[in-house]
Structure formats: structure tokens, C-alpha cells
Amino acid sequence: MIGFGGLFIFGTLLMLGNVLGGLLLASPFAPVRNLRFLKYLIALGAGFMLAAIFIEIMPETIGMWTDGRTGEAAAASVLGAMTLLLAGYLLIHLVEHTIAPHFHFGAETHPESLLRPSAIYAAIGGLSIHTFFDGVSIATAFLVDYKFGWLVFVAIMLHKIPEGFTAASIMLAAGRSPRVALVATFVIGATTLAGVLAVAVLQTRMEQAVVYALPFSAGVTLYVAASDLIPEVNHQEERNPLVSVVVFVGVALFYVLHRLIEN
Ligand SMILES: [Zn+2]
Ligand SMILES: [Zn+2]
After folding, report:
1. Closest CA to 160 of 4, 22, 6, 8
2. Nearest ligand to the C-alpha of residue 174?
3. Ligand 2: distance of its center to the CA of 187 in Å?
4. Could you tell me which of 47, 51, 11, 55 has the C-alpha nearest to residue 153?
5. Residue 32 has what pLDDT?
6. Considering every ligand atom, which ligand is closest to the CA of 225?
7. Hey, how many other C-beta atoms are within 10 angstroms of the C-beta on 163?
């Protein structure tokens, strides 16, 4: 099983993904003009994450929750896991769309909705709670199994660059300086790392932490993939139908990687 140091390294890599996304927009050498690859990355990430949830995380979760049970008893224990999954899904809906005014992946094009300073804090705060649970998902996956951890790591890493880009674009659209925009990407990166470390600490206190964290983080990941990333892909589709196709490439890629790693 992976140690504290290993988890710290993976958490730091995710943080760097966020910062890199911010640098694409808010550095002096920012290649702002040609960011079409980000749309493909969002689509690839969406497909890859969806496949990770249904091919990897859910079977593992059900296996843990039904261990030694059959029939009615197994169904009753799966209810607990599914409730946690729903709770994870709804938490991200709450922080991104109920507490924060509005949120979508990619370049912010509605500066009017960010005029109040509180709107920016709400947007970055909501995104930070989401990134905290990105960290929780990764750490939980690595605690289950090393191969499992790698697959979930790649799935989540794929949306880290667009995520950092999104945070930076919110700040710039609200009229903040590129330096402040980069600070925002550091904040969401740091909360990702905090999520990783929180699970590492929790696991040392509570033997069964992973059993509960796994379905909850699956719900969080499902929200990010299906309700944050997919709508952004659909939004791009009018101008570029190829972006939608890339979702299937993401699914296929995950499946191939899953088969390769399992064998
Ligand atoms: Zn907007
Ligand atoms: Zn995320």
C-alpha cells in the first residue's frame, strides 16, 4: 500500500496541473490565442472519468459493501453506498451552483455575473471544495489498490489543467490582475493537496475510512464528469462536432488502459 510520501507526490502533481492551467491564461507568455486543445482535454477527461466511475470505482465499491453478503442483505448494504454517492453528487451541486452564482468549465464569458466581489469568492470557494474532493478521490483510490489509484489519478489529472484555466479565467473576467489569477489557481491546487492529505491522516485514525470515502468521492467525480464537463462539451458542439466524439475516445482509452493494467 502507498505511504504518506507517495500520496504527497501525487497530490503535488495534481496541484501543478491546476497551476499549469492557470499559467496558460495568466502568464506573460500565455498562448491565449490557441487553446483549442483545452476543449479536447475537457472532452477526453469527461469520457475518461465516466468510464473510471462505472468500470473501476463502482464495482470496487459494491464489492466492499457486499462482502460476505448475498440477496436482500447485499441489496440493503449497497443502499448505504448509493446514498453516499448521491450525497457526494449533491454536495458539488450545492457548492458550485447553489452557493456560488454560476459555474462552468472553460473560459469565463459572463463577466457581468462576477461584478460583486462576493461572487468571485463564492466561485473560487465552491471550486476549492470540489478540488478538495478531487484530492480525496485520488488518495482513497490509492489506499484501495495501487493500480486502481493510477487509473483514477489519470482520470482526475485530465481535468486539472482545464480546472486551473477556469479559476484563472474567473479572476480575469472579474477584472483581477494575472498575478491574482495565478494565486487563485494556487489556492485550488493547494486544496486538492489538502484533500489528499486529509484522507492520509483520516486513514491512520479510522480503519474503515476508505469504505465510506470511495462511494462519496465517486459521486463527486460523477458530478464533475457528467454535470460540469459534459455540458461544456455540448456547448462546444455547435462550432465543432469533433469535440463530442472525443468523449468516446476518453471512454475507449480508459477501457484499454484498464485492461492493460489488470493483466
Ligand atoms: Zn460564466
Ligand atoms: Zn476537479
Report:
1. 22
2. 1
3. 13
4. 11
5. 59
6. 2
7. 30
For each of the chain's 263 residues, which pLDDT tens digit applies? 678 899 999 999 999 999 999 998 887 776 655 577 888 999 999 999 999 999 999 999 999 999 989 899 999 999 999 999 999 999 999 998 888 778 888 888 888 877 788 888 889 999 999 999 999 999 999 999 899 999 999 999 999 999 999 999 999 988 899 999 999 999 999 999 999 999 988 887 877 889 999 999 999 999 999 999 999 898 876 778 888 999 999 999 999 999 998 77
**Calpha distance 185→119 (Å, rounded):** 17
DSSP structure string for 74-114: HHHHHHHHHHHHHHHHHHHHIIIIIISS---SSS---GGGG
DSSP one-letter string for the chain: ---HHHHHHHHHHHHHHHHHHHHHHHSTT--TT--HHHHHHHHHHHHHHHHIIIIIIHHHHHHHHHTT--HHHHHHHHHHHHHHHHHHHHHHHIIIIIISS---SSS---GGGG-SHHHHHHHHHHHHHHHHHHHHHHHHHHHH-HHHHHHHHHHHHTTHHHHHHHHHHHHHHTT--HHHHHHHHHHHHHHHHHHHHHHHHHHHH-TTHHHHHHHHHHHHHHIIIIIIIHHHHHHHHTT-THHHHHHHHHHHHHHHHHHHHH-
Whole-number Å distance, alpha carbon 249 to ligand 1 midpoint, is 27
| 48, 250 contact by CB (below 8 A) | yes
Q: Which ligand is nearest to the CA of 106?
A: 1
Q: Quote the ligand 2 centre to 18 CA distance (angstroms).
A: 9
